[in-house]
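Technical note accompanying the year-one report. For the benefit of new consortium partners, we illustrate the data format agreed upon in the data management plan: each record pairs a sequence with a structure-token string. No post-processing was applied to the example shown here.
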Amino acid sequence: MARREHGAYSDAVKWTKLGRPRRLNRASFAGRCWQNSFAAGVIVLGSIGLLSPSTYGQTRGFSARGQFGALGLGWPGWALAGIVLLGLVYSLVHREGIRWTVVRVIDPWRRPLEENPNYEGAVGALGASSDANRTRYLWRFVYKPLAQAVLATFFAFSSAYFLVDATLAQFQVGWQQPVLGVVNSIASALLWRLTAVGVSTYRLA
């Protein structure tokens, strides 16, 4: 029985791996994902900085002209507004790719992907597996890629945070901050590259 269930698990893994793209350029995938997550971080964290610069330790939120928020800081606020605008323009230009990514993430939670030629085989094999192997499969093909993607996004947002903070501080920051920003960007890109294969089969799993 145990051997049969293990064989069923192996079949489920094989069916799932058949759902991988024949040609997967990990470097290109990682680059696109890093750009998208970094742009999202710039938009979200930059908007927070514009509305509430005190979040980044900037208390000079009001100017003599009555401006408030980051615009009251003078040119750093306007520079940040320009950076956020660039992030919005990037999102607009790449909206189809971003939309495609969002749909692929939420689609498996909305409906079974019966149109996938490997779906029936994977479901049948997984149904014949033990509970322990189904949990193992769930971690390997669903939770692990998602956790890696979330961590990669976190590092990209962290890089965006350092950029926003440095802009509001008129770039008068220590050398550690840009170094950390670059390191976090590299970590994000490497994680996206690492999770490329797992994410490619996540939708089927």
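Partners are asked to follow this layout when depositing records. Confidence is low (pLDDT under 50) at residues 61-66.
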